Structure prediction request, 190 residues.
Amino acid sequence: TAVYLLATGIAWIAPTFAEGVVRNYVSVIDDDGFIDWGIGMGGQRRELLALPVLARLAWQVYQGTGNQDFVAAVYPALTHFFNHWFATDRDQVGDGVPEWETAGQTGYTGWPLFGECCTDITTVEGPDMVAYLLSEATHLQKIADLLGEDDTSLAPRIAELTTALNESWQDGTFVYRDRDTHITPSRISV
Prediction:
């Protein structure tokens, strides 16, 4: 999350640097679309899938640089990365709403709802994940439109994610649901 904020802000001051941040992420993409969340200076890996903000980041950097060649270069990898989020090891029940691997993957490790005392984040589907993925799909669509690409997979995915996000809005608040049963438990104030 800090990298996203840094790169979007710096795109206006040091556009080549901001583009380099995105290029560094996509340069380590695996054949299956996996991009590691924390590549170290020595090439070490965290073995966690990157937060789904890279297409949005690329679009924000493009807004600052106007460099269409940059988005054309990273678009294929960003699409492959986005699609990886929907693989069976990320979306355990195949319903189009992937789950987090760990609370740490979200970038917000201090959530009182998830952790040793409470709910296992890998067993819930939540509006946060859906919102991230919806934003990614929307920004991939913007890039595709800019490049004149006809990606027919994005519109149905955007519709599916929009429906999932709307379903998570109940009684004036966003809710989490059980991954397997899709039941939303009773509300508990923390």
User: Anything to note?
Assistant: The radius of gyration is 17 Å.
